[in-house]
Amino acid sequence: MExxxxxxxxxxxxxxxxxxxxxxxxxxxxxxxxxxxxxxPSGAGKSTLLNxxxxxxxxxxxxxxxxxxxxxYYRNRKVRAKKIGVIRxxxxxxxxxxxxxxxxxxxxxxxxxxxxxxxxxxxxEKEMAKKALTRVGLAHKILEQTGSLSGGEQQRxxxxxxxxxxxxxxxxxxxxxxLDPARAEDVLDILTKLVLEEKQTLIASLxxxxxxxxxxxxxxxxxxxxxxxxxxxxELTDRHLSELYKLGETME
Amino acid sequence: xxxxxxxxxxxxxxxxxxxxxxxxxxxxDWKEPLLHPGGGATxxxxxxxxxxxxxxxxxxxxxxxxxxxxxTYAVAGMTIAIVIAVIFGVLxxxxxxxxxxxxxMLSKRFFRGLLGFLRAIHELVWALLFVSAFGLTPYSxxxxxxxxxxxxxxxxxxxxxxxxxxxxxxxxxxxGASKWQLLFYGYFPLVRANMISYTMYxxxxxxxxxxxxxxxxxxxxxxxxxxxxxxxNYEEVWTFVLFxxxxxxxxxxxxxxxxxRLSKGSSRFSMLSFLLSLSLxxxxxxxxxxxxxxxxxxxxxxxxxxxxxxxxxxLLGIGEETPTFFSAQSWIHTLQLTYDTLMMSIIAIGMATIxxxxxxxxAARNVANGKLTxxxxxxxxxxxLLIRASYILSRAVPELIxxxxxxxxxxxxxxxxAVALALHNFGIxxxxxxxxxxxxxxxxxxxxxxxxxxxxQILLYGVLPSVLPKFLSFILYRWEVIMRTTIVxxxxxxGGLGQQFKLSMSYFHYSDITLIILCYLLxxxxxxxxxxxxxxxxx
Amino acid sequence: xKKLVSFLAFVLLLxxxxxxxxxxxxxxEQEETTKQTLKIGAIPDxxxxxxxxxxxxxxxxxxxxxxxxxxxxxxxxxxxxxxAFERGEIQLAWFGGLTGVQARNRVPxxxxxxxxxxxxxxHSVFIAQKELGLKSLSDIKGKSxxxxxxxxxxxxLMPRYYLMEExxxxxxxxxxxxxxxxxxxxxxxxxESGAFQTGALNEAVWEAAVAEGKVDTSKVDVFYTTPAYYDxxxxxxxxxxxxxGVKQKITDALxxxxxxxxxxLDLFQTDKFIETKNENYEAIEKVAKQIGIIK
Lengths: 252, 539, 295
Description:
The complex is a heterotrimer of chains A (about 250), B (about 550) and C (about 300). By secondary structure, chain A is α/β, with parallel strands linked by helices. Helices cover about 35% and strands about 25% of the residues of chain A. Chain A has a single domain, classed as Rossmann fold. Chain A contains nine helices and nine strands. In chain A, the strands form two sheets. A six-stranded mixed sheet of chain A has the order 5-6-7-3-8-9, with helices on both faces. In chain A, strands 2-1-4 form a three-stranded antiparallel sheet, covered by helices on one side. In chain A, a hairpin with a 2-residue loop joins strand 1 and strand 2. Chain A starts with 5 loop residues before the first strand and ends in a 7-residue tail after the last helix. The longest helix of chain B is centred in the N-terminal third of the chain and has 37 residues. Chain B is mainly alpha-helical. Helix content of chain B is about 80%, strand content about 0%. Chain C is built from ten helices and eleven strands. In chain C, strands 2-1-3-10-4-11 form a six-stranded mixed sheet. The longest helix of chain C has 19 residues. Chains in contact: A-B, A-C, B-C.
């Protein structure tokens, strides 16, 4: 099939909440291995788009095909977990658990209930967790309480979880919004490096245009739920950006 | 405008509550003497005995032994309560039901209602019912503790589960975790710290409940207190009461230590506490099995089933010509008692509130050390210590045991019941409210104090306005608890529904019991509803 | 099935998570070896220490006479003893008139077998603080008053009956409601200590208290003694699962006590036990029905 290159195919998707439009007939084609940055002012619909793609936003109209299959195919959580992984701001982790369990949570789709409960007592497949943590540079924190880690470290633990989960597509919703610049670069560095190594597709929403330019291959500008531009990162100009962020003008 | 209306709303509510209290006092016949002719002298004897409790070795040994039994029953009861709480709490929180399923809301409601029912009935009432159904085994006491505590814990647990932060749960969902896996990797770890600290608080209460289980014939400190009271040997009574206080204080200290460390993450203390609670649990069950020869499964024999069935059928009035609950006259009589009981609870909370309000200011640590009032004196430390000690004494002694002593002093009726309930509750209210003052913003009060305001003025202008809403909510909450307990103080002759309950149990009039429990549940639900309503109005 | 397994695993692991392993329950059940142990009980109408001494002696004596293992099971509450008797947990009980009637109503085949001579003509006494100078039962109006246990014949049922005969309503004519002290000993102690002005109790307990100097008769004394009625007696359960001769053996053992068992008889304040039968207590039952204790 010719769609084998298109891992995500979005056609005419509209979503509204209480009559307010969040996405208005948006269409997108995304190829395997792309690293896409979603930018735009607050309320532009970036999070809604990511929720549509992660199949957690189910109401709405239009068509979505992920890797040649309709959303209903991914109703099975195990199939979905192998295809799509999600990372958000730093509140993703269960602070009361040691790091190792938060990482191994990426394996839950594969584990039976008994094995997953047993793992809380005696960590199962600990080697895998260790390997993942080594790749994000946190191997020494494996037994620490997650809540005692800094914000940047917590995001790296979330990355290690994604490594264990091994999805084909990673959706990142403001992954560095709550971090200071140095930590943010650190996390994005690791994220994009891992995506490259694992040949994954990455779609991330960002506040910062600089990060988009530095780490991504394609930039999509959203405003009021509609597409403003969709360009390879090289073609992005200041004019595009001022168009995207200009104040006081509505786009009916 | 709206704000001033809200401000008025609060004042109107306060005024209303005060009026209700004054009105409730009408029930007591003030023209008759309130004390027995010899009540005053008996009171002095009891107080005098407090100053020199019986500390002879054999009594101490006996107290130690009984304290262990009391502790064992409390621990065993809490173990089962936790199992009930976790299972029903999870079901009542709705976290494992499929939210799209049409029945999920219904099942959530059902389990919430079930937990509400479990906690509505006081543990001693359960104990009396279980002794009639299962006989005098330790499990009658243990189950009697387990059921209401399971209901309370389960309710709180369900609330905690449905209030967890949503982000980690969503994130786990995206890794493909099932509902059950979410429970173990998300919900349980997220609520663990809060759950432990609440359970520890309840454990302290369970020790007191366990002590009064003696009333239905099951050993422990309460039994010794009862025996000593039967002999009017007040010196011994105080020895056992002191032991009870000691257990409560130790658990209180332990749980607040554990709580403060839980919030800071894991530590050696938490680990030790965990191991200690584990060994307490194992030790208690071993003791029950080995020493008391009480195996849990002997409860479920055919024979026991027969007796339990017979008992529950007679509760339903089956085999009786006219079950009590079909007789209008019995309804009128029981509703009269219900009304008395309601009045008893209002008088009780009113008295507890008055004593609390008088004592609470000097009982706050920041008043005692002068931080709040800018005036430090030796006297304020003395009064702080004395009042705090009285709070501990007040809440360590269960209502029932207060009632057993009080009926020697007051004329039978609802007043001794109300006094006993007030005696137990002013300490709890005092502690809770003193903590509110300790958390107060100190600056405005220091200002008042430096401008020369007296203690009373500080109370009126500085403290009361800012703490009143919280006080009100504590008072209303304690009123709900008192409502549940009114029936218990009645058992020892302090009037109301409880006294009738005890008489009907003694006469084996089981369909009377059903009617009384119906009226009792009515009261409990009424209290919950009214207090919820007033709390909303006070917000 | 899968759900069940998950559920079981869940319950099993709860312990580990919350720190509450409930592992003692599964322990192997011990074989009941108590089949031929005879359990005896008594209504707790007096000081517990006295009661456990006398009943312990009775247990030893019956054990020697019948060859069975006999154990005394204490109980805190009259009703609890009746319930235990009904459940077959007690085979032989020392009941009062009312509790005996209650017990035999619940176990129709149970039999009253023995009593003390004085129980054929038992009395209650009404006591009062001496300084009040009460002369007759009607003087009690307007005083504070306590019964014994609400299930007691001599501490509640019969005193209430004779008050009624005298035209005194216990709920209205006292100073405040009457109290239920719980036991005979407690009744005189409460009156002596001043907590109550008057009270009613078992004549035998009163006499023993006076004889042993446990009560100060210069402070409190009897001002009225009721007419006679049947009271305390031994009632034997159906004894299912016991040899057929056991019931007779126990009856004989009780009836044949004599000066050799003087210590026991002293504790019961008697010189022998004599026969009795269920019909003797019909009058008690009638009074109990009239007062509304038995429906």
